[in-house]
Amino acid sequence: MIVPNDSLRNLLAERLRADGFIPVGARTGTDALKLLDSPRFETILLDWMLPDMDGVSVLRELRTRALDTPVMVLSSRGCVTDRVLALDSGADDYLLKPFDMDECMARVRRMVRTYRRQPPRSGSSGLHCIADLTVDPARHIATRGGKRLPLSAKECAILEVFAAHAGTPLSQRELEQAVMDTVTESGIIPVYVHYLRKKIDDGFHLKLLRTVRNKGYMLSGA
Question: For the whole model, what pTM was predicted?
Answer without folding.
Answer: 0.55
